[in-house]
Design goal:
There is one protein chain. The chain is mostly beta strands. It has one domain. It is about 0% helix and about 55% strand. The protein is built from no helices and twelve strands. It has a six-stranded mixed β-sheet with strand order 1-4-6-8-11-12, with no helix packed on it. The protein has a four-stranded mixed β-sheet with strand order 5-7-9-10, with no helix packed on it. Strands 2-3 form a two-stranded antiparallel sheet. The chain is globular and about 35 Å long. The N and C termini lie far apart (about 30 Å).
């Protein structure tokens, strides 16, 4: 399994400079965000993604497999401990006020 990253970039998240990439292709069963703008999850039967508020404040996740998304602190949309998206779904998150919020989604939330 592997993580393939696009050209490296530097972003400032929560006042801290983070070395990251714009896009990461994830083929692992577990992955914690590292400041990427986009994750494409593929080539694994299932992947659990942990949203890391210390390194990431905005991310779009495209699922080419079944994906479970969990926040590092609090809840998603102040209600959900986790959300599950299936193959083909895409969801955009923003971190604000110590919570993760869904800004856009074409998949179903299952809490």
């Amino acid at each position: 399994m592997a993580v393939i990253r696009s050209i490296p970039s530097i972003r400032v998240i929560n006042g801290v400079q983070i070395r990251t990439s714009e896009i990461a292709l994830v083929s692992e069963s577990f992955y914690e965000t590292k400041g990427e703008s986009v994750l494409v999850v593929r080539k694994t039967p299932f992947c659990k993604i942990k949203l890391d508020s210390k390194t990431t404040d905005h991310i779009t996740i495209k699922a080419m497999t079944n994906v479970l998304i969990i926040p590092d602190i609090n809840k998603i949309d102040e209600d959900w401990d986790e959300i599950s998206i299936s193959k083909g779904a895409c969801v955009e998150f923003r971190y604000a006020g110590e919570n993760w919020y869904i800004m856009s989604s074409d998949g179903m939330k299952i809490g």
